[in-house]
Amino acid sequence: MEKFTKIKKNEVKLEENEERFKNDDLSIIKFGDSEIVISEAQIVILPYFKDDGFVLMKYEKCPAFKFKYKDKSEYNTIDYYLTSIRADYNDDETPTQNVRRVLYEKTGVVLNQLFPIEVDKVLFKDINNVGQYNICLLEINYNDYKQSSVKVTEENRVVKVSLGDIDNIKIFDIVTDYLLLKLKYENNI
């Protein structure tokens, strides 16, 4: 029996920071005793048009939601979900420039140059993910913006959601839920 206990498995030893997986969206590396996800930071925006009584939300396909709820009859027919407006964070821009760029690219809204923009929070996506969400709730008044046109595509659909309908929306991601709760709390909605 002693012969067999001295046999060691051929375990692959990974060096610190060695990549275990990589694709266009993320990579996974070994860090200590853990695997760490390396993903892009994102700017996440919920534009609230105070005078008009609506928010802009993205109407998009979310494959992870569809996969998770594939066996639930009440959700398996849903193809599109409402989410906050988001895009990759550009490290070469300031947080304010990121907000202006994403808002224009995704919605066609151009904010007045004097409009004060403040990124509310910067939160990690997960405890094992270095990617972060830069979260911004924008309270926009009538004179704070102008609307330009934006090309609507399958990947870029934005809809107006009336404040009266906010409580009826089924939200599946924590960042959008956080922004809607913040909107309701700060504006007594």
Can you characterise this structure?
The structure is a single chain. By secondary structure, this protein is an alpha+beta fold. It folds into two domains: 7-36, no CATH class; 40-187, Nucleoside Triphosphate Pyrophosphohydrolase, CATH 3.90.79.10. It is 20% helix and 35% strand. It has four helices and twelve strands; from the N terminus they run H-E-E-E-E-E-H-E-E-H-E-E-E-E-E-H. Strands 4, 5, 6, 7, 9, 10 and 12 form a seven-stranded mixed beta sheet that branches. The protein has a three-stranded antiparallel beta sheet with strand order 1-2-3, with no helix packed on it. A hairpin with a 2-residue loop joins strand 9 and strand 10 (129-140). The longest helix is centred in the C-terminal third of the chain and has 14 residues, at 174-187. The radius of gyration is 21 Å and the shape is globular. The termini are far apart. The model has no long low-confidence stretch (mean pLDDT 87).
Low-confidence runs of at least 5 consecutive residues: none
* Structural class estimated from helices and strands: alpha+beta
CATH topology of the largest domain: Nucleoside Triphosphate Pyrophosphohydrolase
The gyration radius over C-alpha positions equals 21 Å
Q: What value does the average pLDDT take? A: 87
What's the CATH first level of the largest domain? Answer: Alpha Beta
* CATH homologous superfamily (4th level) name of the largest domain: Nucleoside Triphosphate Pyrophosphohydrolase
Mass-distribution shape? globular
Sequence of secondary-structure elements: HEEEEEHEEHEEEEEH
CATH-derived architecture of the largest domain: Alpha-Beta Complex
Query: Distance between the terminal alpha carbons, to the nearest Å?
Result: 72 Å
